[in-house]
Design goal:
InterPro entries: Solute-binding_3/MltF_N. The chain is an alpha/beta fold. It is built from 9 helices and 10 strands. It folds into 2 domains: 120 residues, Periplasmic binding protein-like II (D-Maltodextrin-Binding Protein, domain 2), CATH 3.40.190.10; 98 residues, Periplasmic binding protein-like II (D-Maltodextrin-Binding Protein, domain 2, 3-Layer(aba) Sandwich), CATH 3.40.190.10. Helices cover 38% and strands 25% of the residues. The strands form 2 sheets. The protein has an 8-stranded mixed sheet, sandwiched between helices. A two-stranded antiparallel ribbon has the order 2-3.
């Protein structure tokens, strides 16, 4: 015959078994991002916003996950955590050949070109990437713009880096650098928010269109990643996804 103590213990163990799956769900992941408008950014109110943030919130809703904290960090620091800390999600992350085998992926958020930008007033011209050797070139540290340039120039290019896009654009505006390697749509949007005219920027060269995704660190639960991917695919396949791209001016 089961004692009263045994009944209480049985109820407690049952409660643990019911609670554990929730604790092991998407709530257990750490969500990291950066200022990368219109993909992900903080509003003046301090709340996160952007295409990727909206997709993430819809994924949480589909998976019955309570809204989680999104931490905004400088890209290089967030990227380092993605490499070292299991259970980390970083977005929006370009899925390049160099990065592909390093992480697990849930795609897509959207696709957008990575380009070399210059001031139109400088009247610079490129026939090939070897000509970059004569220019002062900058990228954001650990960003896809830096990685693609190193890949496509076999690392011979001397490249300055900074931790912040706006600082890089200010350097470009002041004439302290000649060329900036970055996501074209993001750079142009920040440029205009700085009070500058879009036409003042010239696209010198395209490094290729990149797919931006949610990247998961090594060691993250494959079951959680599969759950996340399924919810993302449901969103991307929905009627609302093209409208979402349109609203953030990311639809081709």
């Amino acid at each position: 015959m089961m004692t009263r103590r045994g009944v209480v213990l049985g109820v407690w163990l049952l409660g643990i078994s019911l609670i554990s799956p929730a604790r092991a769900g998407l709530e257990s992941l750490q969500y990291l991002s950066e200022e990368y408008k219109p993909f992900n950014y903080t509003q003046p109110s301090g709340h996160p916003a952007g295409l990727a943030v909206e997709l993430l919130e819809r994924i949480w809703k589909r998976t019955h996950t309570q809204p989680q904290v999104i931490r905004f960090l400088p890209w290089a620091r967030a990227y380092q955590r993605l490499q070292l800390q299991p259970g980390t999600v970083l977005f929006s992350t370009a899925r390049t050949r160099t990065r592909d085998s390093l992480f697990h992926w849930a795609c897509p958020i959207a696709r957008t070109p990575i380009v070399l930008l210059a001031l139109r007033s400088r009247q610079l011209h490129l026939d090939n990437l070897q000509q970059l050797a004569t220019y002062h070139v900058m990228a954001v540290r650990a960003d896809v713009g830096e990685q693609l340039l190193h890949t496509q120039t076999d690392s011979w290019l001397k490249l300055d880096t900074t931790h912040n896009l706006e600082l890089a654009l200010k350097q470009l505006r002041a004439g302290r650098i000649d060329v900036l390697s970055f996501n074209e749509r993001v750079a142009r949007q920040v440029w205009q928010e700085m009070g500058e005219q879009d036409a003042a920027l010239q696209t010198l060269w395209s490094l290729g269109e990149q797919e931006f995704c949610f990247a998961f660190s090594p060691g993250t639960s494959t079951q959680l990643i599969a759950q996340f991917r399924q919810a993302l695919q449901q969103e991307v396949s929905s009627e609302g996804y093209p409208q979402l791209l349109e609203r953030y001016q990311l639809r081709h």
